[in-house]
């Protein structure tokens, strides 16, 4: 036991810069309920009869459902999101993974980062995992990762983040979505994130109140939640 305490203290010291910019709580992560029967896209089929009894045509229609653009309305503190006009765009790749393109206006320019979302367990499709890829040079801040390259003597370093939880707690697909992410450290403490997303940059105040009440009912502390400026 005496050897564990110094290790925990060291872990806390190493995580202190991260914790100060995030939402820190003692204890393990909460276990909120997620959106039932979550669908990234919706496939509908219709049978159309032809001019003869033998001829029949099956029409398949694929709608975006959860895919497309979402505006960030409010969130718990996130060190990687310091700008304004933050939005997320989701699209389906041919390999079945979901392309995530997040953008924000920060320091007089639009900055974006690309990631990948996957459904880890088909039995719980609302519990996704998201990973982002970055490249960083020795003379410039991080930029979205595209492909390895060397320009002159400039050296590039690549970073791929591990998959982090992306849980859709509730969504109606057409107007609002509530996303929660939590990482536990040895079940002693956890750092969490929460986002209120909308198809519109300015949802109604009643919608925002409803979402916050839902988060509170699920045991999530929203006391540090801040509104995102959407004036671009």
From TrEMBL:
Q: Name one Pfam family in it.
A: Lipocalin_2
Q: Which domain of life is it from?
A: Eukaryota
Question: Lineage of this protein's species?
Answer: Eukaryota, Metazoa, Chordata, Craniata, Vertebrata
Q: Which gene encodes it?
A: apodb
Q: State what protein this is by name.
A: Apolipoprotein Db
Per the UniProt record, the source organism is Oryzias latipes
Q: What does the entry list under GO cellular component? A: cytoplasm
Task: Please report which protein family the annotation says this sequence is part of.
Answer: Belongs to the calycin superfamily. Lipocalin family.
- Residue span of the signal peptide, if any? 1-21
What keywords sit in the KW lines?
Answer: Signal
Which GO BP annotation is one of this protein's? Answer: response to reactive oxygen species
Report the residue ranges that make up the Lipocalin/cytosolic fatty-acid binding domain in this protein. 64-136
InterPro entries documented for this protein: Calycin (IPR012674), Lipocalin_ApoD (IPR022271), Lipocln_cytosolic_FA-bd_dom (IPR000566)
Q: Does the keyword Isomerase apply?
A: no
